[in-house]
Amino acid sequence: MGERVFEIVGVGPERFTGTETGIVTEIFVPTMMHPAAVRDDSTWHRTLARLKPGVDPEPVRAKLHATSRAFERERAKGSRA
Predict the structure, then answer these.
(1) What is the H or E stretch that residue 1 is in?
(2) How far apart are CA 27 and CA 69, in angstroms?
(3) Nearest Cα residue to 27 out of 15, 17, 40, 37
(4) SS3 content of the chain, % helix, strand, coil (to 5)
(5) Taking the CA of residue 5 as centre, how many other CA atoms within 13 Å lie in the half-sphere pointing to its CB?
(6) What is the pTM of this model?
(7) Burial degree of 68 (CB within 10 A; 0-12, 13-18, 19+)
(8) Are 47 and 64 in contact (CB under 8 A)?
(9) Residue 6 half-sphere exposure toward CB, CA atoms < 13 A
(10) 10-residue block means of pLDDT along the chain (81 residues)?
(11) Helix (H, G, I), strand (E, B) or coil at 44
(12) DSSP tag of 35
């Protein structure tokens, strides 16, 4: 890709289009290859969870939301605004 060399470590099934409904992803690269991964003023993360059949997603969603908010509060403490 461009001037960079990457090693292919796996190939998914042909019908796999990514982890987010409605968004097709053709290639995944390690997080550390994204420039924002090492910046102190940037954050981005997504959580993907597969629940067992019959598990109510709302308590899980609420816990993940609380965790995300706590992470953002802690990160903001170190912000140089």
Answers:
(1) none
(2) 29
(3) 17
(4) 35, 0, 65
(5) 0
(6) 0.51
(7) middle
(8) yes
(9) 10
(10) 80 85 82 74 75 95 92 76 53
(11) coil
(12) G
